[in-house]
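The instructor's notes for this session suggest beginning with a concrete chain rather than abstract definitions. Hand out the sequence below and ask the class to guess, before any prediction is shown, which regions might be ordered.
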Amino acid sequence: MELTFTKAAAWRDIYPPNFVRPREYKDKPPGKSAENLIPANEKKAVSEQEAMVMGRVKTVIEKLQQQIDQGRQGVGEVVDLLQWFNYAFFDIIGEFNWSSSFSCLEQEKEHPWIQIIAQFKITIITGCLKYYSPLDSLLQAMTPKSAMADLWMIWRTTEEKISRQMERPGNNHRDVMSHMLAADQAQMTR
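After discussion, reveal the predicted structure:
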């Protein structure tokens, strides 16, 4: 469960005096990031995504039809619908957030980012702990190198997608990132 507040003074009301607030949020009121997401979730912004979503739905139907046809020819295997729906879902999520698909449908396999993000709980905990220097160092010391490599791959992939999105001048595709960047720009000019 998450509770969001819009006033910086809420920190004093909610947390004890000895609570260490992450540096990144020092002067930002809680909930500002969530507020920046509002334009990306309005009816107009979501309807702009319809063609992309329909394109992915069309692709998954075509891929499933190919699987069915192969099965009729005796060369196919059992079709895992959940797997195909996950491919479509994560491709849509990638496009919706960063104008960059994970290409699961085209490659007919999961992107490594998806396999790791499935272990979401540890990802969230690790993401939160990185704001508290002694704890993140302790976690890194206790965690096997292979698990940390997977976690860093998630962060690198996400940063690459965000960087590519920010480097595209005049990008007409309105994704979640473009709305957040526009909101940040508007706040900086106030």
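Then share the key points. The radius of gyration is 21 Å. The chain has a mean pLDDT of 75.
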